[in-house]
């Protein structure tokens, strides 16, 4: 099989008929000027599809790991900031949290 884009053409050759095309293809085939292409079998397509699906899944997994890592960093920073507020007693909300966490019955 030959891809139409790989058939050599002369500039200015615009008249197309089946007879002319057949003669032209026969001459090109005889002179071995045609580049043959491979048409994949259904099994080849299935393997290609499976390979692409695996590649996509691996990329999605990597992206999910990056997102999870970013969320972990944000959560750690939030916990650290909250802990610093609680230990320093910088605002009344955190003081209430401290009292509640320590088990005291004082209400704010």
Evaluate the radius of gyration. Answer: 36 Å
Proportion in helices: 55-70%
Q: Total strand count, please?
A: 0
Percent of residues in beta strands: under 5%
User: What global shape is seen?
Assistant: rod-shaped
Can you count the helices? 3
Q: Give unreliable regions as ranges.
A: none
- SS-derived structural category: mainly alpha
End-to-end CA span: 83 Å
Average of the residue pLDDT scores: 79
One letter per element, helices H and strands E, the order comes to HHH
Major beta-sheet overview = none
What does this structure look like?
This protein has 108 residues and is mainly α. The protein has helices at residues 18-30, 42-88, 92-101. Helix 2 packs across helix 3. The longest helix is centred in the middle third of the chain and has 47 residues, at 42-88. The radius of gyration is 36 Å and the shape is rod-shaped. The N and C termini lie far apart (83 Å). The model has no long low-confidence stretch (mean pLDDT 79).
How would you sum up this structure in a few lines?
The protein is mainly α and 108 residues long.
What descriptors fit this protein?
3 helices, mainly alpha, 108 residues
Question: How do the helices and strands line up, and which of them pair or pack?
Answer:
Elements: H1 18-30, H2 42-88, H3 92-101
């Amino acid at each position: 099989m030959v891809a139409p884009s790989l058939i050599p053409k002369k500039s200015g050759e615009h008249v197309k008929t089946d007879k002319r095309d057949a003669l032209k293809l026969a001459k090109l085939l005889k002179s071995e000027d045609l580049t043959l292409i491979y048409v994949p079998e259904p099994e080849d397509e299935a393997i290609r599809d499976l390979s692409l699906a695996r590649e996509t899944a691996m990329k999605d997994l990597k992206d999910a790991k990056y997102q999870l890592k970013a969320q972990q960093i944000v959560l750690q920073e939030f916990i650290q900031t909250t802990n610093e507020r609680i230990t320093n007693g910088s605002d009344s909300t955190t003081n209430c949290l401290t009292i509640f966490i320590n088990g005291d019955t004082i209400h704010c």
